[in-house]
Design a protein that fits this description.
Layout lengths: L15 E4 L1 H4 L5 H14 L7 E4 L44 H9 L3 E7 L2 E2 H5 L11 H4 E2 L10 E4 L4 H16 L4 E5 L7 H18 L4 E4 L10 H7 L2 E3 L8 H14 L8 E3 L7 E2 L9 E2 L4 H13 L4 E3 L8 H7 L2 H8 L1 E13 L8 E12 L14 E7 L5 E2 L7 H4 L8 E5 L10 E5 L6 E6 L4 E8 L1
Parallel strand pairs: 1-2, 1-13, 2-3, 3-7, 7-8, 8-9, 9-10
Antiparallel strand pairs: 4-6, 5-6, 11-12, 14-15, 15-16, 16-21, 17-20, 18-21, 19-20
GO molecular function: alpha-galactosidase activity
EC number: 3.2.1.22
Family: Belongs to the glycosyl hydrolase 27 family.
């Protein structure tokens, strides 16, 4: 697999990939990863999906569903660096790490990533293992006062000690030698560990320079992450979460409307605020939360999630086991509009947000929120011509549990601009070929009086492109 041309910035569009967390939690195996990789290559790569991420505890031979293990016998090398469990990942035996697996994924034209925790393994500190390339030991560089509140594997690192940077440098050198393309690093933002983030970024930069390939950095989790950090985040990462874990509940999706509206003005090429997982398809096989199931989200809720993430230009990381996911979920992921809007839209913004009541004076008759997003169609950073060059995108969302008749409140000129309101515009449904009922969405009126109207299903969306004839 060849790297992107140097003229293209790293993560030039929001990444689109698969992550094992929603389906396998801490227990993914090599065979399961490869099954998802082959499915992605055959069914989803042409739609823009190209990355697979092994989530947490791939180095714990006692990993189990629904939680983490205290005092787990993590597999480490002589310098305390994590190695894959060779029982779950047989190709890693003999110190090969994820090198053979990365090579197999690259052969499919895809990228491989993995999850990592902030800090240094407790076992390395307990054994006082040496820090590679230095005279320091793990006890010298550990910070026992800044440890993760929800995972027991690691201590923090004392970034005022020079050995702390050396520890990350050695760890990233190992990971880069395996040929990894993507790292999801956890326990970085809640609370916000700026020194650790900067140290990790420096270590990645050294590894990229040495091995001649880029490694995207994704930071987690994202509870209460303030937009005031945006300049620092752009300097140090390609992705950063803006929420805690999202699962297949409407309440979780609803919370992301406000977060993405807050972050959308800050999205910029190469650096993306991340609204978290896409919990579609077959999830919960051996996951942290819930039982084995197809996603509990309705088809309309799934369409809403995808349209909102794309209009907000969030990365897309689907969580369902792809080979065993239902056909509707796969069909939604194959929609070319996902990559089109992620890669080729600008000026993405929420333009309308109104609470709707059965009787406007009676709070007890509250029905839901009507929310509108718009964006301008733009050519892609890789030179691809936009399918809607010179046009616009609009997403009309309804958060209520009944259907909503839009009426004549959304004027076409609010999407295309006052100067273009008299041009001859056509409307196309970006979900026209998606499973489910055909959308009721249309242009009505003439000239400057034209409106976008129709009927939105419960928790649903009308997602359209607008083009001049």
């Amino acid at each position: 697999m060849t790297d992107l041309p140097q003229s293209l910035p790293q993560a030039w569009r929001p990444p689109m990939g698969w992550n094992s967390w929603d389906s396998y939690g801490t227990t993914l195996t090599e065979d399961e990863l490869l099954a998802n990789a082959r499915f992605m290559a055959e069914h989803l790569k042409n739609a823009g999906w190209d990355t697979l991420v092994i989530d947490i505890d791939w180095y714990d031979p006692t990993a189990r569903a629904h939680g983490y293990n205290d005092n787990a016998p993590l597999i480490l090398d002589e310098y305390g660096r994590q190695l894959p469990d060779p029982v779950r990942f047989p190709s890693a035996a003999g110190g090969k790490g994820f090198g053979p697996l990365a090579a197999a994924v690259h052969e499919l034209g895809l990228k491989l990533g993995m999850h990592m925790m902030r800090g240094i393994p407790r076992i390395a500190v307990d054994k006082n293992l040496p820090v590679y390339g230095t005279n320091y030991t793990a006890k010298d560089v550990a910070d026992l006062d800044h440890v993760c509140k929800w995972n027991p594997d690691n201590y923090g690192l004392n970034q005022s000690h020079p050995g702390a940077q050396a520890w990350y440098d050695a760890q990233l050198d190992l990971f880069a030698s395996w040929g990894l393309d993507f790292l999801k690093v956890d326990d970085m933002q809640t609370p916000f560990h700026s020194d650790e983030i900067a140290a990790y970024h420096r270590a990645i930069a050294k590894a990229e320079a040495k091995y001649g390939r880029s490694i995207d950095l994704s930071l987690s989790p994202g509870g209460w992450v303030a937009t005031s950090y945006v300049d620092f985040l752009r300097e140090n990462a390609q992705m950063w979460r803006i929420s805690d874990d999202l699962w297949d509940r409407w309440e979780d999706i609803y919370q992301q409307f406000a977060r993405l509206a807050r972050w959308a003005p800050f999205q910029t090429t190469g650096h993306w605020a991340d609204a978290d997982m896409v919990p579609f398809g077959h999830i919960g096989l051996r996951a942290e939360r819930g039982d084995d199931r197809q996603s509990r989200l309705t088809l309309d809720e799934q369409k809403t999630l995808l349209a909102l993430w794309c209009m907000g230009r969030s990365p897309l990381m689907v969580g369902g086991d792809l080979p065993t996911s239902n056909s509707d979920a796969i069909a939604l992921l194959q929609n070319p509009a996902l990559r089109e809007v992620l890669a080729g839209s600008t000026n993405n913004r929420e333009t309308v947000r109104e609470r709707i009541f059965g009787k406007w004076w009676d709070e007890s008759t509250y029905r839901g929120e009507f929310i509108v997003w718009s964006a301008d169609a733009a050519d892609w950073a890789d030179g691809t011509r936009s399918a809607h060059h010179g046009g616009h995108y609009a997403a009309l969302f309804w958060t209520g549990s009944d259907t909503y008749e839009i009426g004549r409140n959304i004027q076409l000129q609010s999407i295309v601009g006052l100067d273009a309101r008299n041009d001859d515009w056509t409307l196309s449904d970006l979900y026209a070929d998606a499973p489910g009922e055909s959308a009721d969405v249309r242009l009505e009126g003439v000239g400057a009086d034209r409106v976008i109207t129709g009927t939105i299903p419960p928790h649903g969306v009308l997602w359209v492109a607008l083009d001049r004839r």
